[in-house]
């Protein structure tokens, strides 16, 4: 195993330089663009890097990557992955510009939350391809995170909608928390989780 890892690192020295160079350049550019790295953006960059690294491990060590025909590491697939990550960061930058133009902060927050969720799901998929199991509570947390990501909306002051119009368009039984998560949906999810635990017992 040790010899295989040494061979992997030595044979992919150029790729290591490209990856670390790309990360350094991305951090410098984003820090300059945003005047520092917001915490949610830093989290996104961490999960993006983790997804890329775990994907390389799946392909180069376990040879079970679904992104290549033989499951092994390929330079073309790795390059595509880097371009996808760059495209994600470009969308984040565009969302920041939209926030400035519209006069809000929710667009970038929603975009970062959405991409972070997708990256975490991809990481868990890579971990599963390694044969590693993770506890079900992670799936429960991701379901709540997905509900929060899809519930973020522009403020009424921006969209021009009145509180009365918003109230008539929503179910009276649905209560929305301050962080944008539908409490009734959370309670329903908790009930389903409790039912599943009782069935397992």
What does this protein look like?
It is a single chain. The chain contains nine helices and no strands. The protein is an all-alpha fold. The chain has two domains: 124 residues, no CATH class; 65 residues, no CATH class. Helix 2 runs parallel beside helix 4, helix 4 packs antiparallel against helix 5 and helix 5 packs antiparallel against helix 6. It is globular and about 55 Å long. The chain starts with a helix and ends with a helix.
- The total beta strand count reads 0
Shape: globular
Tally the helices: 9
Query: Any idea how many domains?
Result: 2
Distance between the termini: 40 Å
Q: What is the rounded Rg? A: 21 Å
Percent in strands = under 5%
Oligomeric organization of the protein chains: single chain
One letter per element, helices H and strands E, the order comes to: HHHHHHHHH
Name its key features.
single chain, 201 residues, mainly alpha, 2 domains, 9 helices, 0% strand, globular
Task: Please summarize what this structure is.
The protein is built from 9 helices and no strands. The protein is 76% helix and 0% strand.
């Amino acid at each position: 195993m040790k010899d295989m890892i040494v061979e992997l690192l030595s044979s992919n020295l150029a790729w290591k330089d490209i990856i670390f160079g790309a990360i350094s350049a991305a951090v410098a550019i984003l820090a300059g663009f945003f005047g520092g790295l917001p915490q949610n953006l830093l989290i996104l960059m961490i999960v993006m890097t983790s997804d890329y690294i775990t994907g390389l491990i799946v392909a180069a060590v376990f040879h079970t990557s679904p992104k290549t025909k033989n499951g092994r590491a390929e330079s073309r697939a790795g390059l595509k992955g880097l371009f996808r990550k760059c495209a994600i960061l470009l969308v984040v930058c565009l969302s920041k510009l939209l926030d400035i133009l519209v006069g809000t902060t929710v667009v970038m927050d929603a975009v970062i939350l959405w991409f972070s969720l997708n990256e975490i799901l991809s990481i868990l998929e890579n971990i599963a391809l390694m044969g590693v199991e993770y506890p079900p509570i992670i799936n429960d947390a991701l379901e709540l995170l997905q509900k929060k990501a899809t519930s973020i909306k522009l403020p009424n002051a921006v969209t021009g909608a009145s509180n009365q119009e918003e109230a008539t368009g929503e179910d009276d039984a649905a209560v929305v928390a301050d962080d944008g998560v539908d409490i009734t949906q959370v309670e329903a999810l908790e009930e389903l989780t409790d039912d599943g635990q009782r069935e397992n017992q």
